[in-house]
Amino acid sequence: MSLAVARKPLRADAARNVDKIITAARQCFREFGPEVPLQTIAATAGVGPATLFRNFADKEELVLAALNRQLRLTVDPVVDGALADIDGAAGLLRVLEALMDAASADANLLGAVAGRRELLTGITGSLMESISVLLVRGQGQGSLRADISMTDMFRLLAMLIGVVDTMEPGSDAWRRPLALVEDAIRTTRPTRPLPAHVPVPSTPGTGPHLG
């Protein structure tokens, strides 16, 4: 899942700076939220603002680089294992689990590009290709509904990612909605209880507690 913006090979010192900036960005977004200033990220990384802007034109580019790295580190290995597994449905669900786990861990990074679907599509293109392979495999095996299209999967995935906005960052509250999606796309509903119900957290100014 390579970042859509191509980068020239970096010198070793420049590569280290990029790594420090991305690591600092994940830390700062977790601590301070989506509105964290780039100056705070630069200071946390131990580099000057000029170094940050030399490598990332704006916050959007930095956020996409950080998301891309996390997808590569945490989701790509799961995708590789799923593609090697003969069971298409099981592989597809493992990929969705890995993606939701990554989305929950970096909820504030996602919040920084909320509503910018075309940006996220740039770093998830190959992921959707892999999901398509697993979907077709599962349909051919009779374990996934034959009437599900990739448009359906794209929208279901968008719905699942949206769940992150209704829970605490790092929470596994996404497991219950994912189980409901699994029930909907399999030809036979799994014989297991739903994961535990996690109430929607109260947020000041957003109305009453839901759940």
How large a portion of the residues is in β-strands, by DSSP E? under 5%
Derived from helix and strand composition plus strand pairing, the structural class reads mainly alpha
Number of strands: 0
Enumerate the spans where pLDDT stays under 50 for 5 or more consecutive residues: 1-6, 204-211
CATH architecture of the largest domain: Orthogonal Bundle
End-to-end Cα distance, whole Å, is 36 Å
- Rg value: 19 Å
Please tell me about this protein's structure.
It is a single chain. The protein has 9 helices and no strands. With 211 residues, it is mainly alpha-helical. The protein is 64% helix and 0% strand. It has 2 domains: 16-55, Arc Repressor Mutant, subunit A; 59-185, Tetracycline Repressor, domain 2 (Orthogonal Bundle). The chain starts with 11 loop residues before the first helix and ends in a 26-residue tail after the last helix. Residues 1-6 and 204-211 have low confidence and may be disordered.
Features:
Arc Repressor Mutant, subunit A; Tetracycline Repressor, domain 2; 64% helix; disordered C terminus
Topology:
Layout: H1 12-32, H2 38-45, H3 49-55, H4 59-84, H5 88-105, H6 107-112, H7 117-140, H8 150-163, H9 175-185
